[in-house]
Amino acid sequence: MSKYFIHLNQKRCISCKACEVHCKVKNKVPPGAKLGQLVSLGPVEKQGKPSYVSMFLPCFHCENPWCVSACPTGAMTRREDGIVYVERSLCVGCKACVLACPWKVPQWDELNGQVISKFI
Ligand code: SF4
Ligand code: SF4
Ligand code: SF4
């Protein structure tokens, strides 16, 4: 079970993706990578109007994280407070964590040949 999550109110979300943009800018995320992904399904018709179903997929900071188990160097780490993050000095860029996470949360930083380090 996840210790931390971001609640998205489906009734109010209009799938504009401004949250994705803000996350990228605030965390200086390199091109092509996203720390939080807004996934939209649709449009579907709802009460005669086009509507989307949206899900926000940041890291869930899983209690038994697949990404941490898969990492051969200990770079992908779960802190005592439950935060999962990458210790960049230990990352050898093998991408095992990218493959292990069911939601594809760990993001590849093409510029530096590593997984990006901030999942908070
Ligand atoms: S996409 Fe993000 S910023 Fe836009 S309405 Fe939905 S939650 Fe808010
Ligand atoms: S990267 Fe994926 S598997 Fe790892 S803690 Fe986050 S959501 Fe869980
Ligand atoms: S890419 Fe880095 S953080 Fe991910 S499994 Fe490999 S060494 Fe660990």
Notes on the protein architecture:
- By secondary structure, the protein is of the alpha+beta class.
- The protein has helices at 18-26, 66-70, 96-100; strands at residues 37-46, 49-57, 76-78, 84-86, 108-109, 114-115.
- It is built from 3 helices and 6 strands; from the N terminus they run H-E-E-H-E-E-H-E-E.
- The longest helix is centred in the first third of the chain and has 9 residues, at 18-26.
- The model has no long low-confidence stretch (mean pLDDT 88).
- The chain has a two-stranded antiparallel ribbon. A two-stranded antiparallel sheet has the order 3-4.
- It has a single domain (18-115), classed as Alpha-Beta Plaits (2-Layer Sandwich), CATH 3.30.70.
- Bound molecules: iron/sulfur cluster (3 copies).
- Residues 70-71, 73, 75-76, 86, 91-97, 106, 115 line the site of one iron/sulfur cluster (SF4).
Main traits of this protein?
120 residues; alpha+beta; Alpha-Beta Plaits; two-stranded antiparallel ribbon; two-stranded antiparallel sheet; 6 strands; binds iron/sulfur cluster
Q: Give the rounded overall mean pLDDT.
A: 88
CATH architecture: 2-Layer Sandwich
The dominant shape is elongated
The helix tally amounts to 3
Write the CATH fold name: Alpha-Beta Plaits
Secondary-structure element order, N to C: HEEHEEHEE
Low-confidence segments, given as residue ranges, are none
Tally of strands = 6
Approximate helicity band: 10-25%
How many distinct folded domains?
1
Computed CA radius of gyration, to the nearest angstrom? 16 Å
Percent strand equals 15-25%
Instruction: Catalogue the ligands.
Output: iron/sulfur cluster
The end-to-end distance, rounded to whole angstroms, is 17 Å
Largest sheet: 2 strands, antiparallel
